[in-house]
Amino acid sequence: MPTFKIQHITTYEYDRLIQESMNEIKIYPIISSEQEVLHHELVITGNPEVQIFYDYWGNQAGNFNLFPPHQVLSIDSRLVVRTTGSSDLAINFISVFNEMWNEVNGNLKMVELSRPDFIREQSQINEITQLVYSPDHSVAITIKNCCEYIFSHFNYIKGITTVETTIDEILEKNAGVCQDFAHVMLQILRTLNIPSRYVSGYICPNKSGLRGEGATHAWVEAWIPRHGWAGIDPTNNLWVTNTHVKLATGRNFADCSPVKGSFRGPANQRLSVFVSVDYEDGQNIEALNKVDLRRENMSVEPLHFAHAAQQQ
């Protein structure tokens, strides 16, 4: 049962004073049989009061307002977590689609997680489903085939997509990062009526060369009959075991964004996200992602969205 010490700092810098910064954060690790939170501390500029609530998907979230004028907003999350899941796979590779439909029938949230988005290039998704699905395949084998297809046919390239990139655009580029691969996989699985959800968090494999290590990461959880939710990571083509730390789940990135909000003032902003993971053997890995969020032709005192960084 490995223990990870994770620091996650989100910093907004503005080119002039802004005020009334209103934010929602989803950087509280999920407490479950798969992970145990040993310590969690938040340090936020101005020490505002954070109102805690649980969202529609059951994620712990927080709201806070920072009213005094400021040019920097820093949200520093310091976490110690122990993953209690096994490093060995114990997935039901036998159960079939009829079992799945019987299990999810009448569950409105599961039905919602089984519904694909309306996209322009759905025909391309349909073609992929024909390659990964066969009536003879179990649900788990179909999910595994989908993961392998995305890993083999999409290029991992940082910087060519953003948090607003659509599935159609990802298909056109045939490339992206973990967030994009998760969205494509969700569309494929939901086209096959497999309940599936987006997962945000961290990957902590201790310098094993996996993509996304040392940064915020995203993957997929799919429903397998007689097993339940199973995590699978199309960015790295593997089933999730005890090296992934979960922050939130939802239908897509918008439901799981670690930080999002708005502010008042005609300012350009610069966003940086720093993630550091310390391992029990003394090893450390760090990643820093910076994004310029410029606003052109701004009127006086507009209300702007402060977008979160893309998950890598």
Summarize the structure.
21% of the residues lie in helices and 40% in strands.
Secondary structure elements and their pairing?
Layout: E1 3-25, E2 35-44, E3 51-54, E4 60-66, E5 70-83, H1 97-104, H2 108-112, H3 122-132, H4 139-153, E6 155-156, H5 167-173, E7 175-176, H6 178-191, E8 196-203, E9 216-224, E10 228-233, E11 238-239, E12 244-250, H7 253-256, E13 259-264, E14 269-278, E15 284-293, E16 303-306
Parallel strand pairs: 6-7
Antiparallel strand pairs: 1-4, 1-5, 1-13, 1-14, 2-5, 3-4, 8-9, 8-12, 9-10, 10-11, 13-16, 14-15
Helix pairs in contact: 3-4, 3-6, 4-6
Can you walk through the features of this model?
With 312 residues, the chain is of the alpha+beta class. The chain has two domains: 3-83 and 258-306, Immunoglobulin-like, CATH 2.60.40.2250; 97-255, C8orf32 fold (Roll), CATH 3.10.620.30. The chain is 21% helix and 40% strand. The protein has seven helices and 16 strands. The protein has helices at residues 97-104, 108-112, 122-132, 139-153, 167-173, 178-191, 253-256, and strands at residues 3-25, 35-44, 51-54, 60-66, 70-83, 155-156, 175-176, 196-203, 216-224, 228-233, 238-239, 244-250, 259-264, 269-278, 284-293, 303-306. Strands 1, 2, 3, 4, 5, 13, 14, 15 and 16 form a nine-stranded antiparallel beta sheet that branches. The protein has a five-stranded antiparallel beta sheet with strand order 11-10-9-8-12. Helix 3 (122-132) packs across helix 4 (139-153), helix 3 packs across helix 6 (178-191) and helix 4 crosses helix 6. The longest helix is centred in the middle third of the chain and has 15 residues, at 139-153. Residues 296-305 have low confidence and may be disordered.
